[in-house]
Design a protein that fits this description.
By secondary structure, the chain is α/β, with parallel strands linked by helices. It has a single domain, classed as Thymidylate synthase/dCMP hydroxymethylase domain (Thymidylate Synthase, Chain A, 2-Layer Sandwich), CATH 3.30.572. It is 35% helix and 23% strand. It contains 7 helices and 8 strands, in the order E-H-E-E-H-H-H-H-E-H-E-E-E-H-E. Strands 1, 2, 3, 4, 5, 6, 7 and 8 form an 8-stranded mixed beta sheet that branches. Helix 5 crosses helix 7.
């Protein structure tokens, strides 16, 4: 079966904009949305060019596990407006992905997945859960507006390739996809590196390489303010 790729998704949004196939969101602005999107994430951007300077800052922030948005750029510059909208008055958010997958608070899920891939390399259980039932209470506590966008990611080793399936609740095409793709690729590369380091020490497994990222989004969308970038 042939899956869609990024170019197919790009063409969908170009065609929808041409046909003026809009949905009105909760703020009253027009959006173009694709419900139940699934494609191979074979490009780092759907529209535009990734901002590598910002991506590097966000990855470092995720690694730090800080849940305060003012630690993204430190004193150099203010955090992006999207993060300000998400945070409470103190700058606190829920969606530091490094905190969600590396911290003991959330059971060091990265370590759990690495162990699972080593123990059952042909298995289907190597899953990192980002969202949680308590998000219904936590997303708006103390003035936050942060209902975690990534639901879960599952990893598979097949034919000595590490594949991942990224399952997202919501994903903005213009900025969200670029930054989320960079994070998911970062985690995959780390898993490959850590898996291979263990494999070389133990001799239990052949080394692995990067495979595909399958992107599944319940709602993939472009906001009206970004329509001019759909080209």
């Amino acid at each position: 079966m042939k899956l869609n790729n990024v170019n197919d998704i790009r063409q969908f949004f170009i065609d929808e904009l041409k046909d003026e196939a809009y949905t009105i969101d909760k703020t009253g602005q027009k959006t173009i949305e694709l419900i139940g999107a699934q494609f191979v994430a074979d490009e780092p951007s759907i529209f535009g060019v990734p901002n590598q300077e910002y991506i590097d800052a966000e990855l470092a922030w995720y690694e730090s596990q800080s849940t305060n948005i003012y630690d993204i750029n430190g004193k150099i510059k203010a955090p992006p407006a999207a993060w300000k909208y998400t945070a409470n008055t103190h700058g606190e958010i829920n969606s530091n992905y490094g905190h969600l997958i590396f911290s003991d608070k959330y059971y060091n899920q990265y370590g759990m997945v690495l162990d699972e891939l080593q123990t059952h390399p042909d298995g289907r259980r190597a899953t990192i859960v980002y969202n949680r039932p308590s998000i219904w209470i936590e997303f708006c506590e103390n003035g936050k507006n942060d209902f975690i966008c990534t639901n879960a990611v599952t990893y598979y080793i097949r034919d000595n390739l590490l594949h991942s399936v990224v399952q997202m609740r919501s994903n903005d095409v213009i900025y969200g996809y670029k930054n989320d793709f960079a994070w998911q690729l970062y985690v995959m590369k780390k898993l490959v590196s850590d898996f291979n380091s263990i494999a070389r020490m133990t001799g239990d497994h052949a080394e692995i390489e990067l495979g595909h990222i399958i992107w599944q989004v319940q709602n993939l969308h472009v906001y009206e303010r970004h329509f001019h970038l759909v080209k």
